């Protein structure tokens, strides 16, 4: 967790011992907010012919302890009273409908019986779920995620603290953290919530009532160098009037102690740099990171990267730097020759005779900034236009006052509660907070401290922590929140509040017109990153570290560029309303010179990502050939066609694969390289209990074997000595289409875009509503997909159709 130093404290803050009281109130409030009745939904009668069909076509193989794939049809409940029985019936319908069951060797099923079975059981499932949705809502009570809480507090209080770092890691379901059914709330989580609220309020009130100027300092090259010019250390050395860092291995080499943050804040640093001894065909790629840069705190946070050239250039970057952390700027291209330095410390002039590449810093400016609002905005948010500020004796803080404290503070509380609860607040709901505020002022507590304590109570309310939605069609304010948390992961702005007040947000045309505006905002530009971090598991990019012996040219600069490639590619698709088939195949991607060199693509210059056209024989283009995707679907050392095939089926093709039976052992790679993974998987594919899933998994996994664990193309497996075995990627898709290699596989998948469109729609609905796709949702999803056939399933058109759908506009 990240600690924040706070200099603005209130003696009236409630102690943490009242967490239990708030927890009880929270549970009661959540029940009220969810508007969930406790009566059992009436069960519709099971179709009469279902039992006969199962008895005739399924029980021979799926009955008793020896049932195939441990799926005993005889034990399935004959009603829909539990989620497990619903899931079992859906599984049966899907497998019968796809022709997967009964298997071909069992004998052909009468076509009319099959259609009747699928239709009647499907109607039974659909009608049951629709009744449930009408009575209870499709989405249960849903609270703000860590990211949503952070951004909501940032926008509500005009502060910029990275609050999510203070909270425990969240459970992810289908990649997402906002699924209502798997969210929980505990005393520990509530205590953490209070700590986060306190940190945000302390920062806001502290800044609003302080006269402290923002930090600003300019550093010359000499000031960026080590204090003792002859000392062996890891700071830059002074050479030719510049602060020089050579290409080398010592950890934290290039740290700049003079940039250590006195207080946690956002900083803008502008620096001029040039390269020393650049390679012939490119510049010196350098990383910019932050951390304590000591052996006791080895982790560093990436800020960015750049390519230094012989000609000096000036760069500007912004980052949150915690108190006590500093910058580290160094050559970080793993393909550069590294200098030899004794004992992990670098002596003055050691790099010069070794003729290694280096970085020369000419100057730097470090400036504290407030990206989410200046002091005046914070004061408007907390105190309104009527507040007066005066200096307090013997203090650098300001005293807040009103001509009519009770009336002005009450007015401000109403405004704050309306924004925090994201809807108008009825007077009866506001009374406890008004009472608290008035009693505090009457007891002689200052108006600022009284507002602080009352705001804190508001921010602990379930009306703030949870979405306020009732079963059926959402009201305008709930629609505004659905839209804002989909696109921004934050609260609605005044524009959305205004449209809600005017009653315009239940009009699909109005909602559709908001898409462009919301994506164009500062928060909207983060939509692609927020969505893909979870949909594509990009949030796990740091989970593995490629083996240096096998992937010696991989480094943090390459990894950052890979993330940038995927995000820029998808942002471009969204902007152009590109057909969904481009998720799989295209003749362009986004590269800078370092990533292009890593991919063995010539002709790309500069350190900024730019659109690059690919040659016809290139294997790149589309998500499946992008390094970020390939890295998160591998373990850093080996690749697994099973893991990649399962990931592709779930995240791209929309055909989730169930977990393997408990009695089936996992496949371990042959570290000797004597057998390919394909050879070891042969037994799995021959087994009846495994083949049904492996026919879906293996073709994609084998095709992707042409990419190693760090995203580079290969024709053979790695072997320490001698040539590794060749990649065998030919296979057959489930529908019978054959392919020979990754390129043909990609062509076949892109040629049938409808499954890609359906999956994209489903992921957007899950992300935007906080509920998994139900059987009853399928009709509306079919309508959305069909509606966009003429646009070749443009991704922006699909997004617009999702936010105007009945699923999105209903609880």
UniProtKB/TrEMBL annotation:
The lineage of its organism: Bacteria, Pseudomonadati, Planctomycetota, Planctomycetia, Pirellulales. Residues 409-469 form the DUF1595 domain. Residues 735-808 form the DUF1585 domain. Residues 620-716 form the DUF1588 domain. Residues 58-105 form the Cytochrome C Planctomycete-type domain. This is Planctomycete cytochrome C. Residues 142-205 form the DUF1587 domain. It holds the Pfam family PSCyt1. Residues 474-601 form the DUF1592 domain. It comes from Stieleria marina.
């Amino acid at each position: 967790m990240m600690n924040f130093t706070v200099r603005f404290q209130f003696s009236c803050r409630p102690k943490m011992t009242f967490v239990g009281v708030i927890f009880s109130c929270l549970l009661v409030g959540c029940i009220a907010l969810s508007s969930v009745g406790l009566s059992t939904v009436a069960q519709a009668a099971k179709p009469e012919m279902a039992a006969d069909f199962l008895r005739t076509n399924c029980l021979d193989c799926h009955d008793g302890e020896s049932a195939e794939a441990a799926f005993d049809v005889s034990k399935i409940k004959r009603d829909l009273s539990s989620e497990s029985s619903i899931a079992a019936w859906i599984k049966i319908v899907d497998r019968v409908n796809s022709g997967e069951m009964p298997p071909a060797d069992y004998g052909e099923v009468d076509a009319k019986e099959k259609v009747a079975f699928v239709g009647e059981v499907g109607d039974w499932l659909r009608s049951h779920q629709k009744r449930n949705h009408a009575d209870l809502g499709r989405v249960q009570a849903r609270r703000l995620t860590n990211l949503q809480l952070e951004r909501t507090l940032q926008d509500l209080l005009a502060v910029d603290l990275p609050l999510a770092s203070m909270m425990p890691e969240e459970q992810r379901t289908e990649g997402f953290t906002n699924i209502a059914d798997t969210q929980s709330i505990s005393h520990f989580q509530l205590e953490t919530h209070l700590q986060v609220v306190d940190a945000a309020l302390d920062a806001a009130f502290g800044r609003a009532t302080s006269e402290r100027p923002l930090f600003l300092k300019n550093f010359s090259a000499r000031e960026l160098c080590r204090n003792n010019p002859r000392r062996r250390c890891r700071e830059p050395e002074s050479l030719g009037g510049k602060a020089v860092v050579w290409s080398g291995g010592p950890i934290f080499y290039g740290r700049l102690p003079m940039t250590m943050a006195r207080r946690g804040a956002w900083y803008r640093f502008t620096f001029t740099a040039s390269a020393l001894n650049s390679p012939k065909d490119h510049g010196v790629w350098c990383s910019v990171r932050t951390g304590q840069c000591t052996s006791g705190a080895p982790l560093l946070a990436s800020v960015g990267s750049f390519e230094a050239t012989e000609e000096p250039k000036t760069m500007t970057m912004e980052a949150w730097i915690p108190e006590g952390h500093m910058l580290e700027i160094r050559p970080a291209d793993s393909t550069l020759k590294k200098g030899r330095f004794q004992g992990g410390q670098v002596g003055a002039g050691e790099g010069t005779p070794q003729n290694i590449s280096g970085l020369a810093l000419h100057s730097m400016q470090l400036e504290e900034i407030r990206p989410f609002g200046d002091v005046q905005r914070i004061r408007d948010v907390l105190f309104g236009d009527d507040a007066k500020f005066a200096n307090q004796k013997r203090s650098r803080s300001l005293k807040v006052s009103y001509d009519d404290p009770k009336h002005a503070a009450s007015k401000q509380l109403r405004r704050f509660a309306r924004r925090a609860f994201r809807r108008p607040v009825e007077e009866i709901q506001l009374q406890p907070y008004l009472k608290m505020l008035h009693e505090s002022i009457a007891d002689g507590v200052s108006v600022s401290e009284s507002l602080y304590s009352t705001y804190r109570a508001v921010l602990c309310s379930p009306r703030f922590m949870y979405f306020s939605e009732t079963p059926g069609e959402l009201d305008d304010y709930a629609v505004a929140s659905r839209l804002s948390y989909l696109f921004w992961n934050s609260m609605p702005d005044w524009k959305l509040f205004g449209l809600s007040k005017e009653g315009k947000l239940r009009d699909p045309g109005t909602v559709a017109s908001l898409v462009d505006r919301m994506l164009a905002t500062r928060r909207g530009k983060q939509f692609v990153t927020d969505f893909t971090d979870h949909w594509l598991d990009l949030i796990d990019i740091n989970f593995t570290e490629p083996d240096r012996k096998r992937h010696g040219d991989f480094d943090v600069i390459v990894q950052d560029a890979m993330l940038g490639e995927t995000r820029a590619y998808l942002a471009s698709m969204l902007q152009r309303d590109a057909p969904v088939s481009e998720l799989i195949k295209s003749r362009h991607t986004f590269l800078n010179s370092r990533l292009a060199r890593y991919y063995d693509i010539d002709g790309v210059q500069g350190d900024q990502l730019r659109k690059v056209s690919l040659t016809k024989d290139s294997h790149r283009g589309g998500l499946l050939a992008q390094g970020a995707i390939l890295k998160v679907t591998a373990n850093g050392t080996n690749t697994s066609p099973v893991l990649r095939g399962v990931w592709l089926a779930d995240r791209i093709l929309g055909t989730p694969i169930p977990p393997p039976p408990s009695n089936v052992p996992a496949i371990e790679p042959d570290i000797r390289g004597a057998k390919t993974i394909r050879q070891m998987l042969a037994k799995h594919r021959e087994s009846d209990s495994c083949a049904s899933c492996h026919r879906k998994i293996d073709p994609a996994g084998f095709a992707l074997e042409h990419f190693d664990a760090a995203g580079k193309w290969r024709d053979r497996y790695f072997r320490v000595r001698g040539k590794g075995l060749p990649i065998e990627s030919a296979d057959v898709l489930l529908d019978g289409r054959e392919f020979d290699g990754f390129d043909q596989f990609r062509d076949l998948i892109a040629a049938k875009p409808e499954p890609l469109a359906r999956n994209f729609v489903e992921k957007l609905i899950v992300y935007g509503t906080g509920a998994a796709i139900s059987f009853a949702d399928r009709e509306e999803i079919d309508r959305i997909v069909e509606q966009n056939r003429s646009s070749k399933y443009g991704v922006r058109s699909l997004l617009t159709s999702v936010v105007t759908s009945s699923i999105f506009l209903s609880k």
